[in-house]
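F.,

This is the one I mentioned.
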């Protein structure tokens, strides 16, 4: 049975009973999706969901969209920029995590969606995962390469400190620096070293030293030990990039010897503690002066020995006969020149006679081999004209050919008959 309004419009009209088909409620698509949206928002304002991130996409707007899945199903999710700021790690594909979210519907598409309020990795701590992600990212960019590390100055005149004025670290560094090199100029830029905003203060201090005190020889950036949460400012990207961009060499000195931060990998040198950093950059003035004094003594001994050896050489040279009578040096040379000049004419005569005999022998050999010499013994050379072809056989000629016969003296022109 259903009821429907009467159409008469008269006073007292009411519902008209209809025992036929039931009344259908027809929704528009927008009404239905909005209804589902409101229902989900009311009943699933906060849920914890476990799954694996897949298809993560970060947009320039700062929002990140991804799919949360398990072996049975999957659901779309979005991490808006406002919530992403509190995240220590990036939602990358393959990370298994716990998500605190409200369930909603994306009205424009009518799709189910998780609005992520908080995320934490399931297999690793959020800070450890964030550390590994940033380390891998900066390593891929080459910020850890040994080739970009700057050497530390051997004798710095000004040392800059980027640290907190509270705590033992700054006192330890100042004590060591003053003990090792009295009179060393030290500039301190006090910053927060933990908590909200610490990373920005540290990076700004490094940039300020480079901009306003560029003649600073080396920067010590660090703090005393603590938990990973306490040291976290030195694991953040702004600090790493400020260290990498510094024209002043940077020594990272964060925590205790076993503590490692991203700043340690980017810095030009890592020191295990703040005190060790101060020991590293400031030479021991007394030890340097001691070495200089010993060097001066060694130099004096070396110079004295050198002068003694030179004095002995001068005395030895002075006693040489040639220095006692210098004219004896050129007299000896004159005698040698005169002797050679006296022997030169005889030597030249003998040489010319030998060359003349050699020449005569060669002429005689050539005459013995000359064809003209053969003709003098009664032989002749017959040539067929006009090509002057040498005749060796009678078959080379025909009747009427012109022939020239060369004798020892003169020649005869003949014709073959």
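My design for it:
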């Amino acid at each position: 049975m259903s009821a429907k309004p009467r159409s008469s419009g008269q006073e007292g009209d009411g519902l008209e009973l209809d025992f036929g088909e039931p009344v259908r409620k027809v929704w528009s698509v927008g009404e239905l999706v909005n209804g589902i949206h409101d229902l989900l928002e009311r009943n699933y304002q906060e849920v914890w969901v476990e799954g694996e991130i897949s298809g993560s996409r970060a947009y320039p707007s700062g929002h990140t969209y991804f799919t949360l899945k398990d072996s049975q199903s999957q659901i779309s999710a979005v991490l808006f920029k406002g919530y992403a700021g509190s995240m220590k790690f990036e939602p990358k594909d393959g990370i298994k995590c716990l998500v605190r979210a409200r369930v909603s519907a994306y009205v424009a598409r009518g799709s189910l969606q998780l609005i992520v309020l908080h995320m934490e990795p399931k297999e690793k701590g959020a800070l450890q995962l964030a550390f590994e992600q940033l380390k891998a990212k900066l390593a891929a960019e080459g910020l850890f390469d040994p080739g970009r590390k700057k050497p530390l100055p051997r004798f710095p005149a000004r040392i800059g400190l980027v640290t907190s004025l509270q705590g033992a670290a700054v006192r330890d560094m100042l004590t060591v620096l003053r003990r090792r090199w009295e009179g060393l100029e030290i500039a301190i830029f006090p910053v927060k070293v933990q908590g909200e905003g610490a990373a920005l203060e540290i990076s700004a201090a490094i940039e300020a030293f480079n901009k306003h005190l560029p003649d600073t020889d080396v920067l010590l950036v660090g703090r005393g030990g603590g938990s990973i949460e306490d040291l976290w400012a030195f694991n953040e990207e702004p600090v790493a990039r400020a260290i990498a961009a510094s024209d002043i060499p940077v020594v990272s000195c964060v925590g205790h010897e076993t503590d490692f931060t991203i700043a340690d990998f980017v810095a030009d040198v890592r020191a295990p503690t703040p005190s060790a950093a101060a020991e590293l950059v400031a030479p021991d003035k007394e030890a340097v002066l001691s070495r200089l004094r010993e060097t001066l003594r060694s130099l004096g001994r070396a110079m004295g020995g050198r002068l003694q050896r030179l004095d002995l050489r001068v005395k030895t040279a002075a006693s040489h006969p040639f220095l006692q009578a210098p004219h004896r040096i050129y007299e000896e040379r004159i005698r040698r020149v005169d002797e050679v000049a006296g022997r030169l004419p005889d030597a030249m005569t003998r040489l010319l006679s030998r060359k003349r005999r050699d020449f005569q022998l060669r002429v005689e050999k050539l005459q013995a081999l000359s064809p003209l010499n053969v003709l003098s013994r009664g032989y002749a050379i017959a040539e067929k004209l006009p090509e002057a072809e040498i005749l060796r056989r009678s078959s080379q000629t025909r009747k009427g050919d012109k022939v020239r016969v060369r004798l020892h003296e003169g020649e005869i022109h003949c014709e073959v008959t």
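Confidence is low (pLDDT under 50) at residues 1-15.

Talk soon.
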